[in-house]
Amino acid sequence: MLWAAHGHYWMDSIIGSVGRVANVKVRNDDDIVDRVNHFYTTGIFIIFTVVVSARQYVGDPIRCWCPAQFPGTHVDYTNNICWISNTYYIPMKDIVPPIEQLHMRKEKELNYYQWVPVMLLVQALLFYCPCIIWRLMNGNSGINVDRIVSLAGDAQYESPDSRIRTIKYLVRHMDRCLDNQRDTRGWCCVTLRHILSAKLSLICGRRYGNYLVAIYLLIKALYIANCIGQLFMLNSFLGTDYHVYGFQVMEELIDGKEWSASHRFPRVTLCDFQIRQITNVQQYTVQCVLPINLFNEKIYIFMWFWLVFVAIVTCYSFANWIWHMMFPTTRIQYVRKFLKLMDRLGTGPDRKLAGRFVLEYLRHDGVFTLRLIGKNSSDIVVAEIVAGLWDMYRSKKSIQIRSNLNGHETEGEDV
């Protein structure tokens, strides 16, 4: 009864901790696929770390079948020495190599089970590292993406008056941020670079309006490399063909084979150790059971399918962002859709001006910010922001045209 009470207490503690983690405020400067990588996957690995660590340090991670003459202290010593020194696996139907062929036993060693909690924490950190890089670097763009997207997300739940004020603030804020990115130099090579960056996306940088997009796509590539790399990293860590593990499990299930203990995570292993007795050294070989591998097997099966799933959805997200951000036509169509929705787009000059509005005013980073707003709030909020930016852009163009006309008239009077 006491054991059951303690187990219930530990379970309540873990569930309570998970609930508190779920309530942590998530930043809004990325999309759902990024959060699957750095938030949900990291959380899953930390939960696995807690489960495995509790099994190792609270229960008995290993139990060895010792000779009958061993007293209790010798049994404890055997369990401890076999846990810290690597055991090895040889199937029951195979003959155990003699002690003279010790190297053949060494080849069958399992040297991972003591380090599983540490490895899980390292994996969690690797999934969070791209997120840290993104948050450190996106601040250099001059656009506070997190604040803009957070306010836009909150605006959809506000009252009409508060919503209007928030949208106006976001429009003014984005306009200042976009102006802050502009290169005011008028050299010919600078103009050519801006054309290459806007039309062909060949040059990247803050002054070319595509810094955020370039960094974001780099982070996506890091997420993909991390997912695929971890499959091969675990292959080296476990010492088996882990990168094909999931395929073999599916093949067994399809063929209707009984899912028995995997040779990658054996429950019953062998252990060699020596006991020094004054004048001689006694060699012992005992059979041990590893209950911890019952958990490790299930964890690493789930992990294989999860890593493959995350890699696939991240690759899709990466390709989707490239398609929507690298080609000028897709960016223009995206913004025109919202201008039509808000009845801001007429015919003739307005349609031509909309292209310049996207390529010269919003540029890559402006459209990227609008897409993030859409992924974290709603298309209605994006449409209202686009309409506000369009009105501001047209008013600036009108003032510029009038000032140019007044300048020509003044020159004519002087002549």
UniProtKB/TrEMBL annotation:
One of its GO terms (biological process) is monoatomic ion transmembrane transport. InterPro entries: Innexin (IPR000990). Its main location: membrane. It is a multi-pass membrane protein. Pfam families: Innexin. The chain crosses the membrane at residues 112-134, 211-233, 299-323. GO terms for cellular component: gap junction; plasma membrane. PANTHER family: INNEXIN, INNEXIN-5. This is Innexin. It comes from Mizuhopecten yessoensis.
